[in-house]
Amino acid sequence: MVPSEVAVQEVSTGQPAERLVNDFSIQVATVNGSGSQTANLVLLRSIFQMGVPVSGKNLFPSNIAGLPTWYTIRVNKNGYIARKKEIDFLVAMNPETAREDVLSLGPGAAVIYDEPLKLDGLRDDLFFYPVPFDKLVAGVCTDAKLRRLVRNMIYDGVLSNLMQVDLSQMEKALSRQLGRKPKAVTLNKGALEVGFGFAETHLEKRDPFCVQPMDATKGLILIEGNAAAAVGALMAGVTVVTWYPITPSSSLCETLIDYLRKYRIDEKTEKATFAVVQAEDEIAAIGMAIGAGWAGARSMTSTSGPGVSLMGEFAGLAYYAEVPAVIFDIQRVGPSTGLPTRTAQGDVLTTAFLSHGDTRHLMVFPSTVEECYEMAIEAFDLAERFQAPVFVMSDLDLGMNTWMSKPFNYPTKPLDRGKVLDEETLERIGKFGRYRDVDGDGVAYRSVPGDKMPAYFCRGSGHNEWAQYSERPDDYQRNIDRLARKFETARNWMPAPEVEIDRKASIGVIAYGTTHWAVVESRDQLKAEADVGTSYYRVCAYPFRTAMASFIERHDRVYVIEQNRDAQMLSLMKLDLAPELASRLRSVLHYTGNPIDARTITDSILLQEGYRVEKTGAATSVVPRNAGVGGE
Q: How far apart are CA 372 and CA 487, in angstroms?
């Protein structure tokens, strides 16, 4: 692993250190396919059940089994849930990475390790806890094949003892995780107790990290972003799902399929009231979704960057022929195959202009699992209101990791089907023209096959407002201008930005998606360490609201924070802004494949503002601009 840039507090390992309560990170280093995910989720949920804010992030390889995987849990009493760069407590279970994992730690960190690895000789500034996992698991499980899976639960038991994580909460979380497998619950509970007992008898607590009960998670749930989006699609009334499996989006449709089978079977006929098709590729998937949207269904597909690249021509058809569909893009690292199991915000520009010619697509950017749910619902309404594809721009970090959330609100608004032609409207407008702008907002009326309204020829070639084939320059230009007018109308219908104004601040910060969580923490760091106040504008959709220009205008410099190399959101913003406003924009870019952290943002902004950031052991000191200049 990459060495930590900020070390935890250096302490003497010969005596107990001052306690650090509910403010640390745990990293479990194992092997993919070893069954460690169950143990990791039990640990995460146990701390959550104790009322302490947590977040979990899984760094795993793209092969099926055998390569290193790291699971990080952040525990923070203040509710900071972005990735923390430094690791405070390591569980070293993988012989291949154990040495590097230990050497990457800052002084004063703690290490639980498999005793035969003999890691305690590598450092004298860490707290080491050797555990004979194979010996302990042999007393719990007689089946040699199961021991590899059960041994992971032993480190949960050890952590429960050392960190004062309530063992009853561990057992409760275990039952929730494996509730339908009573034999597995009994076996793993035995491993928990053995681990706890071993730590109680053989390990002296010397590190400072511990958990104490709080009341900060009352009423909250734990859920992955893809699962939340699936619930949103269900509530939005989706009836056609066409998809092709690809990491990290597959779990969205897999979860949705389970929900559809549970809630969308007609009680009388026992027949499905939905259609799900696993297509031969992403091209076919979006093609079928568009066909279903033209026929009047609420349709969707989900994919990631490589799939978006393949969908370009069909996306252009949906834009030009004006057919609704929802596409979930769970972004990952590219280009090409890239890093399939690493997160990024690298599809922003690609998606905004996906297809050839003058094309602009509607996009929404969820930052929370609650917004994955809410924006999924809203995306279907927007797609039908504006008769266009709508892209929900999530990412791997949000989609596949576990997040805290308030329970979702049951939708109360009726579905917005947009301008669907009926007899009353036909009488009012006199004559139906599929691409005729009757109301001046760029949005024409559509008819749906079988609704007994006038039909039209749906085509991706040149057409006039009556849907007749045309190569006349004036017909083409009039149609393209109307599509631009429709895009402008959509601007004020898209999800509004979240804005926080510090009236004394000369610096603004703009972010979107999961970058939000690191920004929240970074703004507090900037204020605490350098007394730098900031205003904040969180982008929730494209096209942008006009409030963005007003936000930039009131600040001298505005930092756009994003997880890609090429400043894609900043580039998109510049197309909308006057040159004098665009010149105020600065970039903070993070593109390692790991979720962005607050320290990276804080240090980058301070350096660009002219401060010196100095690190000595645990401490980060900020030297003000012009300090030390002149004088003796």
A: 23
Which tens digit of pLDDT belongs to each residue from 443-460? Answer: 999 999 999 999 999 999
Phi and psi of 331, rounded to 5°?
-70, 145
Nearest to 155 by CA among 94, 70, 93: 93
Under 8 Å CB-to-CB from 81, ≥6 apart: which residues?
53, 54, 55, 74, 403, 404, 517
Asked if 332 contacts 342 with a C-beta cutoff of 8 angstroms, the reply is: yes
Q: Which of 236, 405, 459, 444 is nearest to 328 (CA)?
A: 236
* Cα separation, 551 vs 499, whole angstroms: 9
Tell me what the mean pLDDT of segment 44-52 comes to.
98
Percent of all residues in the chain with a pLDDT value above 70, rounded to a whole number: 95
Is pLDDT at 587 greater than 80 in this prediction? Answer: yes
- Sequence-separated (6 or more) residues with CB below 8 Å from residue 522: 509, 598, 599, 601, 602, 605
Q: Which tokens is 269 given?
A: 């006929």
Look up residue 332 and give its amino acid: R
- Residue 5 scores a pLDDT above 60: no
CB 290 within 8 A of CB 242: no
Tokens of 42: 């039990």
Task: For residue 370, report the phi and psi dihedrals to the nearest 5 degrees.
Answer: -65, -40
Q: Which residue do the tokens 């339908």 mark?
A: 180
Contacts for 403 with CB less than 8 Å, ≥ 6 apart: 55, 81, 222, 223, 224, 225, 368, 369
Q: What angle do CA 449, 453, 455 make, to 5 degrees?
A: 60
Give this prediction's pTM: 0.94
The answer to whether residues 460 and 469 touch, using CB atoms and an 8 Å cutoff, is no
What's the rounded Cα separation, in Å, for the pair 250 and 303? Answer: 7
H or E segment and range at residue 446: none
Q: What is the pLDDT of residues 114-137, one digit of tens each?
A: 999 999 999 999 999 999 999 999
pLDDT tens by residue, 357-368? 999 999 999 999
